[in-house]
Amino acid sequence: MAQQEHKLQAQIFTWHWNNKPTERGRLFATFQEVKSPIEGGLKKSLGLVRGVPDLVLVRDGGFLVGIELKTPNSTHLVSHLIEQCSWLINVPYIGYFCDTFKMAEEVLNGGKGIDPKKVLDYCKSVTTKNILWDNTLFITK
Hints:
The protein is an alpha+beta fold. Helices cover 40% and strands 17% of the residues. It contains 5 helices and 6 strands. The strands form 2 sheets. A 4-stranded mixed β-sheet has the order 1-2-3-5, with helices on both faces. It has a two-stranded antiparallel sheet with strand order 4-6.
């Protein structure tokens, strides 16, 4: 994860911990990144799954909310974004991409972030291997 995403994730987690004490332990990180193919193989054998988001919130009743963090102007493999979209669409009760603290705060308070279906549609429309993250690409006009 890029340094800016680390900062954003730390800010979100700290805010949640400090402002929602009754939900402590319900928001957690998944630590998907690996530093080498050997580490990736080891983590895969222990349960690492591609596409799982950076943060998961467990709501009352066991409903999962997936939160995948991106920072503006960061570069991402389209194939990886498609995997992340698939997970966010198919696994949790609901999932979103978030690229600002305010957006993540809204999601943690029951609001919405960037719809992974819109990100998926955009990713399927491009012919490049990488895209520069720009949330205005996912706004339906």
